[in-house]
Amino acid sequence: MSKMVYRNRFKGTSMRLPQRDYRRAGGYFLTFCTKDRECFFGDVVNGVMALSTIGHIAKRYWQEIPDHCENVRIDEYVVMPNHLHGILVIERRLDTPFVEAFPPFVEAFHGTPLQKGASLSQAMSAISPKRGSLSVIVRSYKSSVTRWCRQNGYSRFAWQPRFYEHVIRADGSIDYIRRYIVNNPRNWERDRNHTRKISPPTKSPPIT
Questions:
Q1: pTM (2 decimals)?
Q2: Would you say residue 4 lies in a domain?
Q3: Smaller CB count within 10 Å for the chain: N or C?
């Protein structure tokens, strides 16, 4: 698989195919960046990612997506200092109702504060099953991380608008993408998203 696929992955423009039904079964390689590439999620130390408090939340909410999306599972992923790479697999077409992973910001959490340490499931319990798509899952995931930050004193946190996605084809490319994700921390110094900006503290304990 050519590395040209990733050349424009962080420019904030979508690579969505006009005729693609993003409820179809299949694998999707996704990337989300923080606003201005600010390192809210932590830092890479000796080739290993050290997550900040926000980084732990971003990781935990990503891991919880299958708990709320019946036919979706996560594959390889990594939370980097200012972006997240992950593979989401839709195991069958999302035509049947399912609970949205993290419903949109205003609708999902209006009057439903999510306190530090609380499980996202508590905020999800009152949400009715709905149909959805890849964009709904991503938008809702990003909104939920933002909401947690607003409620827990990290008001400066923000995502870059939109996200990058690549439809993984049945040509063995998923193995290349998995390696790319796994090797991201050790390649951080050469990453185009690397920034010298001061990041938030990176040694905060994980939220339990």
A1: 0.67
A2: no
A3: C
